[in-house]
Amino acid sequence: MTPKRWQDWTNAVLGLWMLASPSLLGFAVAGNPAMRAAWILGLAIVAFAGIAVYMPKAWEEALNIILGICLLASPWALGYSDQVRPTTNAVIVGLLVTALAVWAMLMDTAVQKWWHERHLTR
Could you list the residue range(s) of the whole structural domain that residue 20 is in? Predict the structure, then answer.
C-alpha cells in the first residue's frame, strides 16, 4: 500500500514521540500532569493518525487538529508551564501536529471540492 498522505505517517511518529518523551526528557514522575498529557494526547494522535493512514478522511484530520491544539495549550491548561522541557515539547509537537493535519486536510479532494463549490457560488 502506497501512503496517500505522508503527513499522517509523520503525525503518527510525533504521537509515538509524545508517548516516549516523558522518559526520554526526564519528566516521567508519578502524578505529573505533563506526563499524563503526553501519554494521553500522544496515544490519541497515534490512533487517529493511524486511522487516517488507512482511511484518509477529513474528519480524522479535524480530530488531529483538535488534538494538536490541545497539546499546544496543555501546559497552561493543566498547570505545568513552569516546567521548561515538557512545555517546549508540547508546544513544538502541538504546532507540528496541527500544521501537518491542516496540510493533509487541505490535500483531501472532498475538502478541495467543498471549498471550490463554496467559493464559486458566491
Answer: 6-120
